[in-house]
Amino acid sequence: MTLTEPSVTVLNPLTRELVGEVPEHSAEQVATVVAGLRAQQAHWQGLGVAGRTRWLAKYRDWLLDNQERLAELLRSETGKPYAEALVELPFVIDELNYYGRHAAEFLADEQPRPHGLLTAGRRITVRHEAYPVVGVISPWNFPVALTLWDAIPALFAGSAVIVKPSEHTPLTVRAAVDGWRSIGAPQVFETVTGAGATGAAVVDTVDFLQFTGSVRTGRVIAEQAARRLIPVSLELGGKDPAIVLADADLERAAAGVAFGALVNSGQMCVSTERIYVEESVHDRFVELLVDQVSALRQNNFDGFDTELSGLITDEQFEIVQRHVEDALERGATVRHGGKPGMQPGFFEPTVLTDVDHSMLVMREETFGPVLPVMRARDADQAVELANDTEYGLAATVWAGSTARAQQIAHRLQVGAVDVNDSAAAHLICFVAPMSGWKSSGIGGRFGKEGIRKYCRTRTVVSSLPGTATMAQQSWFPYSAARSAFFGKFMRLTGGRDIRRRLGL
Ligand code: NAD
Fold first, then answer.
1. How far is CA 188 from CA 56, 93, 236, 245, 438, in A?
2. 269 catalytically annotated
3. Fewest 10 Å CB contacts: which of 117, 189, 454, 499?
4. Spatial distance between the Cα atoms of 453 and 465, rounded to a whole number of angstroms
């Protein structure tokens, strides 16, 4: 691939030092890359699941061999604490192994039995055949996981894949995709870099688009994809609630809520961003939460022995500051933090109380280290408040009884609920789908559907030799007698209603 002069610079958000430069690929360059992928895809598909799995297993080994190097690169462009940068790749490898064990089963032809007499004597085969080229456009908050988690099942399915990482964090993804080339695998996996225009060029050229990012960009992409009539899967933002009931183990709930709200300094799609606590335990819970949050460290710039770091961009910092200021103007109380941190880009982990739904911090995605806690009269009001949002990504419920918590979980308008566990727990349950409701997305990742979505289905219906099918009675020529006979037959077989069948 011929590259333009480097034109996107990548800064370490902690030190503001330059850590790399990548090309800003033009629409023409994206089209050339996609044409190359398209040319290779039939060969990739032809390897079958077993052949593709062998290459993906080699790739897994390469990722394992390069884990430390990739984690360092990730740290340099995201500013994540070491502990968080180190685990992102193992989560990808875990998913790769999951699909490695199940891809053959999920992609196998299916032979559903004919459903009734009308189709008896037919063999029905459903094949799952991959979209030739899949585009994956990803955000900056978990650059490696949120790119490879979607690219890997597409490769298993038989698609060629082009990824477009965030312009803020393209380096680790690019290095990880280079690994595919270095193991000598078929050239069905490529990266292009740049900002929105490069992403738009990807949407314009691929056959399926997988997007993770903001609701705003998701809408733009959905419109562009609709014009091309290509399918999209959108994993978008959230405003995830936590519900803490009076009988919950409050110590564990406070620790779990603090973790779920502050992983990656709150820059996680499923971060806990609103906390509803039953009135009788509100004050005690707030005390425990403040204990948890005030013990966290945000002062160690080498990334070791620290839990919190800075926000990825000035824009992100300004959103956090604006949400906190708006809450304070409308009557919220700061219980911890509430101010910019000790260096540019840092915002103190902040616990707010006396919040309500008039405040930005309870309505819009903050994507920062802010934990607003609101009293709820009872569980019913907590559910009502939790559902009072345009988002529907995920939630957590904390309660003494798992059964009661599960009942509450099923009343929440979200794609996933973690019961007595942190907001990140469901993210690594690869056997089950992760999907957003309402403005939080369309489609989903993981599980059987996480690989099948990259496939179109082809149904082949074969009349077996010697089995004259009843449906043939509907062929030409028409006559009143044959039509009447066939109509009755349809009523009998399709209607399945004894009373009406017998004319009673
Ligand atoms: P973003 O929407 O600004 O950008 C995401 C990606 O889209 C980037 O690669 C960007 O270059 C690209 N892009 C921007 N404009 C485009 C266009 N017109 N056409 C094509 N591509 C375009 O999001 P972000 O700030 O990088 O990420 C943060 C957001 O992502 C938050 O809202 C967060 O909740 C969401 N998110 C969702 C999930 C999930 O799984 N649901 C996971 C992580 C993050």
1. 12, 19, 26, 50, 34
2. yes
3. 499
4. 34
